[in-house]
Amino acid sequence: MAPPQGQQEEQRGRPASSFCVWLVTALLLASVLGGGACLVAYVVLPPGEAPGWIAAAGLALVALPWAFWIATGLYRCVTTRSADRAAAAAVAPGSGSMVSRAQGS
């Protein structure tokens, strides 16, 4: 089943954004895999041979996607709220309110 016509036009119009999505996905996946490898190395290596920074690097790399998605969610909330405020400010009030119309009749 082919996607609807509107989706096809949208996909053809923005190839760069599709590449960015794949790039960010690959970077976040590499971060999780690298962080997991650091944590496995920290657990497997004897305490005297494991560098002190490897556990911190592993935790930071595993936490990076969480920080990215939380920041993305906050950004979306803030931009949506500011767009709603701008749209509400752009709406001009009508010539008469519903209250004045109801009292006049």
From TrEMBL:
<protein>
    <submittedName>
        <fullName>Uncharacterized protein</fullName>
    </submittedName>
</protein>
<keyword id="KW-0472">Membrane</keyword>
<feature type="transmembrane region" description="Helical">
    <location>
        <begin position="21"/>
        <end position="45"/>
    </location>
</feature>
<keyword id="KW-0812">Transmembrane</keyword>
<feature type="transmembrane region" description="Helical">
    <location>
        <begin position="51"/>
        <end position="75"/>
    </location>
</feature>
<keyword id="KW-1133">Transmembrane helix</keyword>
